Amino acid sequence: MLDAARRPGGDGVPNQPCKIDASEENLAKLTAEAWGAIQSANSPPTLFRYGAVLSRIETDDGGAPVLRPMTVDRMRHRLARDAYWFRLDAKGREQSIAPPLPVVRDVLATPDPNLPILTRIVEAPTFAGDGSLCTDPGYNAKNRTFYAPASGFTLSPISTQPSADEINEARGLLTDELIGDFPFDGEAEKAHAVAALLGPFIRDMIDGPTPLHSIEAPTPGTGKTLLVELLTYPSLGRPIAAMTEGRDEDEWRKRLFAKLRTAPSTLLLDNVKRRLESGALASAITSYPLWEDRILGVSEIARVPVRCVWISTGNNPALSSEMTRRTVRIRLDARIDRPWLRKGFRHGDIRDWATSNRSRLVWAALTLIQAWIAAERPEGGRTLGMFEQWSRTMGGILYVGDIPGFLGNLSDFYEKSDAEGSAVRGFVASWWTAQGGAAVTTSALWPIATDSGLDLGDKGEQSQKIRLGKLLKDMRDRTFNVTLSDQEMHLRIELDGTNHRANVWRLVVQ
Length: 510
Hints:
The chain is α/β, with parallel strands linked by helices. It has three domains: 4-118, no CATH class; 164-335 and 346-416, P-loop containing nucleotide triphosphate hydrolases (Rossmann fold, 3-Layer(aba) Sandwich), CATH 3.40.50.300; 418-509. The chain has 16 helices and 22 strands. The protein has a five-stranded parallel beta sheet with strand order 13-14-17-12-18, with helices on both faces. It has a four-stranded antiparallel beta sheet with strand order 19-22-21-20.
């Protein structure tokens, strides 16, 4: 993956390195010479700009490529191998020295360094934004990716005009051989699973954000984690590393920022147990092309590229309204008490089969995408708000590949997963039943809100009334669809003035 002279921890030194005389101690001159040495040695590139931060590619203990920001120590390590540093003694003789720390710091402080810009690391061939297939290992300037294939990986040729037989074979490999034994709850669930698999290969052709793929089930042991492994194995060639949920917003921000700084192609939130309602996560998912946030502990704003595919797993996860709108569902339901005891699978060891057939699976993913490109990129018929580019692209690929159901379960998903929205609609329905269109204060609505199960915290009546008042302000001028006595009604929350400095609210039929 990396040149021997650049491999982390390696002892190799480039042939005939640059010589830099540090005797003069002219910082500007020495920094310019240091950058000359770096750029001379950075071919092929291993040092990049990632979110405007100097970064290098390393390898973790499992052999996976990861991106690390250049610290003072890492830059000094680099400069010691890109150049021979010396000073002249009193007799004019060269004395070898380590790169001076002021020079190292000045190199790191250089604005807008002339280095390749990186957006993500990939471990399989991918399509660039112009539709060309990038199969050469290393840095690709077209899509600003670094391709680090596993040792021994080979790919069969991809037809520029895939035939019907090739499309059928590719679809069968993915939907039947790889994931055909999973108890998907419908066509849409399987279509979204294929979309998650295809995402890393097509990401650079989607000019916009991509949603969270929520893999859920009613009970443990249904196969959520295994499905994630199989969907991500073609693009990664290894088990995916998981990220756990944060306990609060600061921890969410810290974990997300740390993960995104490694330039992942897929980000997995595994085994979500709490209600998923992180503002940081919601912001990161819809941020494109960069996510900007404050670095915890310092007064500095940092930016990182967002080019990953988002996946989560959980048992009947509850999502906030803002997270529900950013999510597509992949639900598994075996409809038996102990789903882990199921038998009669197509492959005795599906992990082993996927490992042995990774090259074929990558071929299948690339063939389906190439078939869509060859068909002049038709757009999908359904769209998901905030993710229009993703919807049109992925819907078109699945249409050409004859994989039905894409975005066909949104209404059912919203109804069952939007715990916050369901609670609010229940409150609005109870409000109309009790008060109709009368003008009422927040205090008068408080017993209705608590009886309907609206979450207002547990800090006492006054605190709950304050939270209800804030919630009503947030919902002002919103229309909710509720069902009363088998009749569907559209009710809008409106502010109807004040009474003794207290806000007065009214429901209006739309």
